[in-house]
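Re: that chain you flagged

S.,

Sorry for the slow reply, it's been a week of failed gels. I finally had a moment to sit down with the sequence you sent. For the record, here it is as I used it:
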Amino acid sequence: MVSLLVRPSSGGPSWPQERTLVVLVGVKQDGVQWRLVGTVIHRFESRGFKLVGMKMLQAPERILAELYPDLQRKPFYPALISHMSSGPVVAMVWEGRTVVHISRTMIGHTDSTEAGPGTIRRLQCSHQQECHSC
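Prediction finished late last night. Pasting the structure tokens below so you have them in one place:
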């Protein structure tokens, strides 16, 4: 997740707007395949955040390397990159007060098995288990 702090344009609220680029679990290739994009958008909008940009793309390996620099020396890294580039992802930019902090809470722990109830990662984890049990 990439976070930016931007000043509002004239006529906007007096507090600075936070913006965060969210390429989150719910909209990685699995989330797109399982049609969870709308659910993720709804969750952010229901928290009062404003969607200011969105793009579906096939993430090139160089972009994925920038997202996961700390994992490049891990033995599972090649499999991670292969999996992440196996389908389209949806990148979104959200704006709102405390969006960075709240989005981290909404998304949940990076290990989906440890993600709290109601988090986006838990949603994906439960959906993944349903799909694999079929």
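What I noticed first: The first strand starts at residue 2 and ends at 6.

Talk soon,
D.
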